[in-house]
Amino acid sequence: MKKIAVFVSGRGSNLQAVYNVSKNPESNYRIEYVVADKECLAINFAKENQIQTLLVSKEKKTNYVTFQNLIEIFSNKVDLIVLAGFLKKIPEEFVHKFKNKIINIHPALLPLFGGKGMYGMKVHSAVFESGVKISGATVHFVNEEFDKGPIICQKAVDISNCNSSEEIALKVLEIEHEILPVAIKKILENELVIEKNRTKFL
Ligand code: GRF
User: What angle do CA 181, 26, 77 make, to 5 degrees?
Assistant: First the structure.
């Protein structure tokens, strides 16, 4: 059984989707840790479901671990790190340590509507204002630059009938919940090859 750590900052609906799939008898992974940058609904969900939780901060703080501590805690214990709505930038040292082992879900079709400051409703507002007719979700590897690592999978959704960014967010969220657990499963089955910036499922 492979082990994953899920990083969160808020509501935790992606965490729940990943958790629900992990509970299927044929699942190849389980959530070993949930890590957050603050107390939040997602941390409550993890505690209610007996998952180990950790709070992380760049600086040393009471009740918080640092990213350096996480490197030690995770070593040989975690096969994949999943950012699911985690709002803090991951330090470079941590990214290098877990090269090709950190993935992120982004609520738009990268490389559009990504980059610094593009998170949560800001993404959906930009999508709405741009007038595009499709949006979607992207799972990608995390590298040193915001939303720039190799794309693992994407799924599009028709938003031509959406009247607000909130409506777009709802449509996209459904897709996020669908593709994130699939990407996790495939990566952990070693069914993904990375060639420069392109990835391919076997
Ligand atoms: C999701 O839309 C995710 O793509 C984005 O932040 C949101 C988090 O939602 N990065 P939740 O906490 O998983 O419900």
Answer: 65
